[in-house]
Design goal:
Blueprint lengths: L9 H15 L11 H8 L3 H13 L3 E4 L5 E4 L4 H11 L7 H18 L6 H11 L9 H20 L4 H16 L1 H7 L4 H19 L3 H36 L6 H14 L2
Antiparallel strand pairs: 1-2
Length: 273
Amino acid sequence: MTSSPPRRKRPEAIGEAIKEYVASQTLRPGDRLPREEHLIKALDAAKGTIREAMRGLEFQGLIQTRTGPGGGAFLSEVSDDRAMELLGNYFFFRPPTIHDIYEVRKQLEPALVASLAGKLTADDIAELETVMAFYDHPPTSLEEEREQRIKELEFHLLLVDHCPNPLLALMCRFPIRLLMSMTVCQRIYERPYPELRRRGHDYQRRLIEALRHQRTEEASTIMAEHMRAAQALMEEREAMLERTFFRAEATDGQGPSRDYLALNEHLASRDHS
């Protein structure tokens, strides 16, 4: 016997009703929602319940509230940053690995390139080339090394910006943003790695030429090769960093920090009390 889904709390049900109202009235970002007193009367709900429902919608990024004359609740479009933050929370306790990310990118980004057929203008191509100019030369410092790695990923985000399929765009954007923020990737980017820059730039240069001349199948093939090569280089670097970390841990003779030991002892005594 299957169990029925849990019953929504009243503020959650009101939030869903408001979203249905927005969809049925074809309201757009910037449009104003009915005033609080109207919602209280129409939904036969207490002021506190309505306010909790509105806070839920604001947390989701769907509305913004303004105070003062002309204030109220206004519809807002969920930003990319907000969407990435919510997805990041989903993976908080089970973060994907570099291998996981590139397994997804190998499948999605060739499809992303195929979706751009005939859609990139000369200005779009020029913008991609401007980004590439940041890493068309060896870096002169470790800081520039890190900046170049981020710019290489921004190149891919620019491609995502032109994707006509919003679902594909979201699915491509999230792995790229993960690579920009993951601790292990930051450690990789902070160390000299000329092969990663050189090969990435070469693949992207070839990709631009294929896109410029609308050779869609060739562009997809280049992107697939790019993702396979990037995965191999990143995983190789990750393994190298892990070996370095364990060697340092074994030879520094310091062991765990005093703060860690104190915290661990406190938690252990609490668990046994």
